[in-house]
Amino acid sequence: MKDFTYAAPATLQEATRLLTAANGSARILAGGTDIIVQLREGLRDAGQVIDVKKIPELMELSFSPQHGLRLGAAVPCYCIYENAEIAKAYPALVDSARIIGGWQIQSRASIGGNLCNSSPAADSIPSLIAHHAFAEVVGPAGKRKVAVESFCTAPGRNVLQQGELLVALVFPPTMPHSGSAYERFIPRNEMDIAVVGVGTRVQLNQACDKIEFARIGLAAVAPTPKFAQEASEWLAGKPLAEETYAQAGELAKKVATPISDMRGPAEYRTHLVGVLVKRTLEKAVERAKGK
Amino acid sequence: MSTEDLYLGKKSYSVLGQRPVRHDGADKVTGKAVYTSDLQLPNMAQGRIIRSPHAHAKIKSIYTAAALKLPGVLAVVTGEDWPNLEEKFAIMGEAGAVNLHHLANNCLAKGKVVYKGHAVAAVAATTLAIAEEAARLIKVEYEILPSVTWVLDAMKPDAPILLPSLRTDSMGKKGTEPTNIATHIQFEQGNIAEGFKQADVIVEREFRTASVHQGYIEPHVSVALWNEDNRLKIWTSTQGSFNCRQQVSELLQVPVSQVVVVPCEIGGGFGGKITVYLEPVAALLSRRCGRPVKLSMQRNEVFEGTGPTPGSYAKVKIGVKKDGTITAGEAWLAYDCGAFPGGVIGPGAMCVFSCYEFPNAKVDGYDVLDNKPHTQAYRAPGATQAAFACEQVIDELAAKLKMDPIEFRLKNAAKEGTRRVDGPVYPRVGFIETLKAAQNSDHWKSKLTGKNRGRGIASGFWFNIGGASSCSASVNDDGSVTLVEGSTDIGGTRTSVAMQLAETLGITAQDVRPQVGDTDSVGYTFLTGGSRVTFATGLAAYKLGLDLQEQMKQRAAALWDVESAAVKVENGKYSSNGKSLTFKELAGKIPGAKLDPVVGRASVSPEGSTNGFGTHICDVEVDPETGKVTILRYTAIQDAGKAVHPSYVEGQMQGGSVQGIGWALNEEYFFDDQSRMKNASFLDYRMPTSLDVPMIETIIVEVPNPSHPFGVRGVGETPIVPPPATVANAIHAATGLRFTELPMSPPKVWKALSTK
User: Hey, of B137, B686, B691, which one would you mutate to test binding to chain A, going by the most A CBs within 10 A of its CB?
Assistant: First the structure.
C-alpha cells in the first residue's frame, strides 16, 4: 500500500473542494470495507483518502410513510435493519443489508458505498432498482439526481464526475399491498459473492389477486447491475401464478449477458436469473399479501 | 511392519479416555499464544517475495538495481544466490530422496518459472512498506512458454515439457525421451485376467478430481537470523522443526549443528507445512543484511505458491461374483505433482484397494508434472482421490447385486491377515467394527424421507505411520512433571502425549506441563504428519514414564534404605515394607533428602503403520433448480485403537469430514487459459463455513493397535478419506446420477440434472 493523505471534511462544500483539488487521485472512505482492501491489494490507488462520515448529510437516515426514505450515503447497513419501520417498508433493501458480509462488516459498510463501488455483483443494487430509488449527487456544479439503474457504467465505474460525491439514496414512499425481496445464489450459505442476484418489488391490486406494478433488478449477469424493464412492465396486470413468475423470469433473462468465470458458467448464470426471478417474486407477493 | 506386540491389554485407565482441558488452551483462547507473526526482534527487517505472473516462462533477466537504490532497502536475493546444488540429493524421512536443486528452485526460481506465483526474488527492507515498494521496482523479463494444468494433457507426447532433463522412472527403469511423467509405479497380486473371468458383474468407471489446498488459517511466516558467528536461528510455523532444520542446512550447505529451528505455535498445517518455502530465503536475506528478517505470505501467495494436493484422473474396474465376493480389481491412477517431481501417487496407489480383500489386483500409478505449485501432503495424501473412485464403484456394484452397501463391504472387508496390493499383511485392524457400528448407528437406522434426498455411505483407509520421536522430562518438587517433546503441536498432541505420560506414572494430565522444544533442546523427532504423534511420540512418553518411574523407585529405595527391587509401584503409589508414598509425596522428599533430581528421557522409532479405518454416512438434499447440494446429516465412524482424549479424536473426525465435504462440493483451483489460478482468495476458493455443514456426528470404535502399549492408533488423517465418495454416493441416491468429477459444484450438478 502506498502512502496517502487523509482528510475528514465536515461539510459537503469542503468535501467537494477537496475532491476537485485532488484531481482524480482522491478516494472516498465511508465504511472502508471495499476501499481499504482494494488499496491494500493494489486494486485501486489513492493520493488522498477522504472520510465522509463527518458530513451530516451522508449520515442522515430519515423515514416517513408520506415522504419515503432518505438514506445517507455513509449510513451503515445495520441502521437499516435495526429500524423496524424501515425494515417493514423496504424488505428487499433489508434482505440485501443483512447479507453484505457478516455483522462486523454490516456495522461499517454502507449501501451508498456498495453502489459507488459499482461491482456488477453488488448485493444492494438490484434491491435499489426494485425499490425505484435514485441517487442524489453533489458536485462543483451543484446537485443532480441519477436513477440507480443508470448509476454504474462498467465494473468498478460509475457516473460520478471529478469533484462529485454521492450524498444520499432517496426511496419513494411505500404503497399498500406492496412487497419486495432480494435473493442471491451462492454455492455456500454465507460469506460469498453472488453468482446471480435478483431484487424484485411488486405492487398488488386492492383484491390482492393481480400484480399492478413490478420492478426487477439483476446483478452479476452483465458489466453493471441491470433493470429488467421488459419483464417488469410485462408483469403489470398479470395474475399471481407460478406461470406468471416463470414467464417474467424468461423475459428477465433477455437482459442477462453474463460471462463465464470461476463463479459460474454463463449458461448457468442465465438459467439462475429465471430461478431467482421466480423465487423472489413469490416471496415479494407473499410479503405484499402481509404474510 | 512391526510384528512386536506391545499392547498391555489394560482393562481400565485413569487418564486415557478422560477429557482434560488442553494445556495450550488458555493461551490460545485469550490470544496470548505466540505465533511466528507475533515475533518482533531488535532491528528486524521485513521481506517480500516477488512472484511470477506466468505459469511457465524463461527468466531472461532480473533487474534489481532500482530496488537496491531505494532508501531503506537492505538486501535482494534471487535464485542465483543458492549454493551449487546440481545433482545433490538428501534423504528426508518419508519424502525419500529429495532433489535439492528442485527444492531450492521451488523456494526461489533459477532460470525458469514453472507455475504462476513461483518465487523469483526476495527483498528485505527496514519496513514492510519499503519492501513492497522495492518489490514493485524489481523488474523481471520473461519469455513465456506454453503451459499445461490437467494431468492427462501433461502426459501427452506433445505436452509442454517442464523439466527438459526428466526421464520417466518406470519400476526402476529410466526412459529415454523428455517427458512430464516422473514415475510409473505398479503393484500386482494374483492374476487379474483370471480374476475378472470369475466375475459375474464388472463395473468400470473414470474419475477426475481438481487440485485443492490444505487451507490452513495461518499463512506461512518465518523469521531468520544469520548471526556473525555463522549460527543460523529460525523461528517458523512448521510441522517438523528437525525436518525444517535438515532442509535449510542442505539447501544452504551448512552443517545441521549451525542451525537451530524454533517452532512457534502453528495455525494449521494439514501436511502443507512440511516442506520449506520462506525459511531458507529469509536466511539468505539475513546473511546478506546482517539483521533478523521476517518473511510472511499473503493468502493469495499461500494459494499460488504452496500446497496444493494433486488434481487426478483414475480409472477403476472391479469384478464380483453374484454372491458379492470381489474377484479382481484394476486401477490406473495419474496424479499431478505440480511443477516438480515427487507427488503423492505412491500412497494413492497403495490406498485405492486397501479396504477390501482383493485376491487379484493390479494398480498402475503415474506421478506427472504440470504447471501448478509443487503438490504437498494434505491429510491422508492421495487416499481421498483414490477412495472417491473405488468407493463409488463399490457402491455401484452393491446396487447391481441388490445388496445392502454395508453388507457388501462386510463381505469383502479387510481384516487381520488381509494382504494389501502393495504387499503388507494387516495385523489386527478395525474396519469390520466401523462397518458394524455404522449399521447400528442411529443415523443408518433412521428413515430419510422427502424429495430430492438421498443417503450415501463410504469407507476409507490411511496408514498412520511411526517414525522417530524423542522426549525428556524432569520431576519437580511439587510432584509435577515438566515434559519437553519434539513434535510440533497441530492437533492437541501436547495434551495427548502428556496424558500418556501421566497414565504411565499414575498422575493426572494437569500434573504434566508439556512443551515443544526447539531443535537444540530435545532429541531428534520426525515431523508431525502421517497421524504419527499421538502414536509414536506417545510411545516415547510411555517409555519416558517407565524411565521416570524406575528412577523414582530408586529414590524411594534410598529414602527407605531398601533395595530398589523391594519397592513396588501401583497406580502411582510407591511402597515397601508397609511404607508408602504417592508420586507427589515422594517427589517432595527428594530435595530434602539430598537425593539426585529425577530427569528422564526416551526415544523411539517404531516402523510400519497403525492402520486406521473409517466409515462415513451422509444425507443430502439436491436443489434440482440450482444444483446446490445441502448436507442434511453426516456421521463419521472411526477406529481410534484407544481414544486418548476423545474430544480431540472427535475434533479430528469432524475437521477431516468438513475438509472432505469442501473438497466434494466446491473447492478447486480454477485456472484461466494461461494456466493462471483465478480464485486465490477465501472468497472464491470456497471452503465450507460453519453454515454449510451440520454438526458432524461421531462414533469412535476402539480396536486396540497391537504395536502400542495402550492400543493407540493415529486418527488425524483417515477422516478426510471417505467424504467425497460418501457425498457422491448420497447424491446418486438422491438423483440417480453418478458424479465422477470433483468438485460436485452447483453448475455441474445442475447441468447433469437438466440434461438427464
Answer: B686
